Amino acid sequence: MMRRMILWALAVVLLAGARAGAAEEAAAPATRPAVDPTADRILHESCDFLAKTPALSVHAELWKDVVLPSGHKIQVTRSIDLAARRPDRLHVDARAHRKGRSIWYDGKTLTVLDRETNLYGTVDAPATIDQMVDMAATEYGITIPLEDLAVSDPYASAMKHVTAGGYFGEEPVLGVMCRHVAFSTDRIDWQLWVADSPQPLPQKLVISYKGEEQYPQYTFIFSKWNVSNRAADLAFQFIPPPGSGATPMMKKQDAGGNRP
Asked: What is the bridge-based pairing of β-strands 34-35 and 202-209?
């Protein structure tokens, strides 16, 4: 999955200059994505709300398509819990049956625990969530689940790749009335359902991988949003679990990338 595209490939451009004049329209017609202004506004409102939230936590249920060597497509599930305290605290716990990966970042170090092997690696990390996310991806090939919810500017960080976007009306998601928007890039299509409320938080995200066999999808359902309480420092500090062991963190050329 492209960096910062899971869960949240929030990539659009502001259309404030869309009516600037015929000369500007003719100058770069191919560079402006065909994004519906309503979809752009809804996405921008949600991203701005997240960007202005100093601390947040959320639970997500993920349904992921897996294409077997036989060509048969099955669906597997996992849960993801994220807690963030900007600018320099992040904890993510991703679990599946008998498997899982947990991540702690405390502004100084990044620790990744493989729960299947009970092995963990710790490396020095830069001073902000944004810088840590970049380091994890570029140096270690690690895509942190739901990272786009925690970076300082979700809208700006993902706006580069969208080629089109639209608004598809209101729909309920588990009893919450939402506004349904969808966007496309060269590699993925993605849909987002945003709560129609003073807190325009994401309720559902669907990502489809266009260039892969059988067009696999990832579906996220978000719940247990908390944007009021700040998690204590202890939530972001790694304490080795019983029987665990330390192992060197593999560099990108050895580890490869991964989706959430």
From this structure: unpaired
